[in-house]
Fold this sequence. Notes:
This protein is mostly helical and 394 residues long.
Amino acid sequence: MQHLEALTREAAALGEGALTLAGTLTADESEVARTLQICNACRYCEGFCAVFPAMTRRLEFGKADLHYLSNLCHNCGACFHACQYAPPHEFAVNIPQAMAKVRVQTYGDYAFPAALGGLYRRAGLTTALALAVGLALFLLMVLGMRGTLLHEPLAGNFYAIFPHNLLAAMFGVVFGFAVLALGIGVTRFWRQVSPGERPDDARGAAIGGAAHDALRLKYLDGGHGQGCNNDDDAFTLARRKFHHFTFYGFMLCFAATAVATLYHYLLDLHAPYPFFSLPVLLGTAGGIGLLIGPAGLLWLNMRRDPRTMDLEQRPMDRGFIALLLLTSASGLALLAFRDTSAMAALLAIHLGIVMALFLTLPYGKFAHGIFRSAALLKWNIEKRRPSDLALGSD
């Protein structure tokens, strides 16, 4: 133990010395570099998640390494609760909090357009404004087209309120921009953390491994399958389960939209569709998942140990969760009352919330899934190659 303490102190001193030479690093990046030097000497958490074996392949940590490792971190908190050098120890090692701060910086640094990168730091206000604009837009459109929010029942025919082509054009443009912005952002990130290497250089096992890790949320199991830590030292798989409800609920809703699009354009089958049709069944299942998942994540977020969080990101986290929750709740309400005179008002509210969600996709919490998937792909490529260092294991 004395030998480990001495080695760790030496690593901490080396880390401090390295930081004085790394003038291009921000304060948050410097803190991650400092703590990683200590972790590299200790190695106690090496089996917890991919961050630590990836760390052992490096002796020094430049900006690209820090961005890569910070996005590889799933912020589960297990390493903080296990660390003998966590506060109040003088080394004050806090990997989850330090990497959370660098992650949000990463999103802004690689944002497209670059001028909008600052929206990540103001995501709570951005979400509120987008929601207000979206709701106002569609409510005004209802009043302009029909002159009233209440009407005679229309047998669930949404397109009697808003023409199909108008909705397709509006949401197609906004969603297309979101995909473009996120695509350019993550490409910039990849070029920085993997210079000279393209994502399509990965083949077979690496791509499959990254998809497996992302879809199963492998690194929210704490490294031992019992889960991570949320508000205390107890292990829990709750965050993993609620993330699964959220992600797969979102994907089912997306699948419902895709199937309805095929019905409309390919099969010439137009909405409204009966309840037991494939688009409605997919959308209903997805909506239920998007109720359970975000509600659970919001509950966990409110109980989370603040020592493992970047508290400044709470508005971004909770704003995104709230939009997902409102999207599913308004969608299910619209389905339940689509044959009533309140359909136009419910449709306007639902579409306004969905528009707000689409507008904020490139500049809010949604980005973490895109950047983390890229980091997982890099790790799955990297761990299949021999290390340049005879340190640690894959």
